[in-house]
Design brief:
The structure is a single chain. It contains ten helices and 21 strands. With about 400 residues, it is of the alpha+beta class. The strands form six sheets. An eight-stranded mixed beta sheet has the order 3-4-8-5-9-20-10-19. A hairpin with a 2-residue loop joins strand 3 and strand 4. The N terminus is likely disordered.
Length: about 400
């Protein structure tokens, strides 16, 4: 397959996207023209070839906006580098199809194939974003272009800054500033799931557990108290901990609780007077973050702990009427989502949501990131069946 994604359209963008370099110089940026009616795998390659590492989504957002604005059956709204495109057909149900435009940074290892531009090896597409998640975004765009009379009203969401701190999330910004555009009965986040519906997601919470000691010269260690040694019981309790598998609405969510980083000490000849163990608990969506915190504090009772970050999980979302018909259209038994995804944001708004997209999530962010063309086509086919 070939990709001729040359920047051929010039000018300012519609619906609030300036499309100019820095917004102040007056230098008009080239806007890449996307062919939404091309084979969806080829469209994926086009999207991948527009580098969009978090913070650099502008060029891709411009291209997506330019393509969507040509579709007369959609109402397109832009907020920063996020876009919402909606049908208004008066259907009984409205569903959200959402995906993020950004990727993690490009690999630095020489010879890595998970980079930009994309490359083909037969029917396998290599490059940054192949699985996470430009295949899913390509499916969204193909559906937006081809399904002019879907059986449900559809809200397509394309957002920036997913792969970085939650405070920067484009979806979070849309929730705060354009909430009226996001009402729906059901949501699908097109994150990679190997073409299987994955319901809800685990929550995540992080802590710093600190031990204190007394600094001393290491040649006279008995004059001090070693804070790193004092952290040994923390590590022992975490190592001995047996994580639970908890059934929520028929799906089994496997939990995990781990030390993910440890730091302490000032020099090779000084007994350390402080040690910090960073801890991450991935908890089933039967718990709130506060309940998860109470669980960890009970396990590590007696140690000084500070909660540094938390995000609630999401229940499977399979009890929604639209979910049953969607699972039937996919034709595979649903599975739980172990990692955290933005279905949690939709769930927090009262919108039951699932994950469903092309590609293997285990390849996401890897130096070997790739997806098979047929996986993208099958994902598109399943959603087309469901919405037709």
């Amino acid at each position: 397959m070939t990709n001729s994604n040359a920047p051929t359209t010039f000018g300012t963008t519609a619906a609030g996207g300036p499309g100019i370099d820095g917004g102040a110089t007056g230098v008009v940026q080239a806007i890449h023209t996307l062919d939404l009616h091309a084979d969806v795998a080829a469209l994926t390659a086009e999207l991948m070839d527009i580098e969009s590492v978090s913070g650099n989504e502008r060029a891709l957002a411009d291209a997506v906006e330019e393509a969507l604005s040509k579709l007369g059956h959609l109402q397109v709204t832009r907020n920063g580098d996020s876009l919402v495109a909606r049908t208004s057909l008066g259907r009984a149900e409205r569903v959200i199809l959402a995906g993020h435009l950004d990727t993690v940074p490009l690999p630095t290892t020489p010879g890595s194939r998970g980079t930009v531009p994309s490359t083909w090896d037969g029917e396998v597409l290599y490059g940054r974003g192949a699985t996470d998640m430009k295949g899913g975004v390509a499916v969204q765009l193909a559906l937006a272009a081809t399904l002019r009379e879907p059986t449900k009203d559809v809200t397509f969401i394309f957002y920036d800054h997913e792969e970085v701190a939650a405070a920067k999330s484009g979806l979070g910004r849309l929730v705060r500033e354009n909430r009226e555009l996001l009402d729906a009965d059901f949501g699908i986040l097109l994150e990679p799931t190997n073409g299987t519906v994955e319901g809800g997601c685990n929550g995540t919470i992080r802590f710093e557990a600190t031990t204190s000691g007394v600094a001393a010269h290491s040649a006279r260690a008995w004059m001090g108290e070693n804070a790193i040694h004092a952290a040994a019981p923390i590590l022992a309790r975490l190592a001995e901990y047996q994580p639970a598998t908890i059934t929520v609405d028929g799906l089994d969510y496997r939990e995990s609780l781990n030390a993910v980083k440890i730091h302490g000490g000032t020099a090779g000849n000084v007994i350390p007077d402080q040690c910090v163990v960073e801890i991450n608990y991935r908890f089933a969506p039967d718990k709130t973050p506060d309940q998860a915190e109470a669980h960890v504090r009970e396990l590590l009772n007696g140690f000084e702990m500070v909660r540094t970050d938390a995000a609630a999980g999401a229940r499977p979302g399979l009890n929604a009427p639209a979910a049953a018909s969607f699972v039937a259209a996919v034709g595979r038994a649903p599975l739980p989502k172990y990692g955290w995804t933005d279905v949690a944001r939709l769930s927090e708004m009262g919108i039951p949501a699932v994950n469903f997209g092309p590609g293997d999530a285990l390849l996401a962010h890897s130096d070997n990131e790739h997806v098979h063309a047929d996986d993208i086509r099958e994902c598109l086919a399943a959603l087309t069946r469901w919405l037709s």
